[in-house]
Amino acid sequence: MVAEANTVVEHIPAADALGLVEHPDVQFIDLRDVREVHREGHIPGDYHCPRGMLEFWLDPTSEYAKSVFQQDKKYVFYCAAGMRSALAARTAQEMGLRNVAHIEDGFAGWRAAGGPVKERLRIL
Fold it and tell me: Which residues does the UniProt record annotate as the domain Rhodanese (predicted)?
């Protein structure tokens, strides 16, 4: 399924995505579970959308819709290793979100490429 999603969705190596991190027309979307985010940190300026909520937050007719998905931006999804983000990006694209991509090697690739990481406050 991931390989199939990558045939229809733009996939970017983390090293190439580094140049997009401060671009005003790019919104990074972190799909990881909140425990992953708290344990490992996240990309500065991203928006956290747990994978299980994507369809609800993305659909403008949903009572759970989030305004972050109603902007004219490039959306770059990421997860830990690039599998969840491939499937989520495909779903978002099928739901009508334009200009969607994902980091093919995920947050692990981001860290390996020397990308900036912001730590989350720990929950006690």
Answer: 22-119
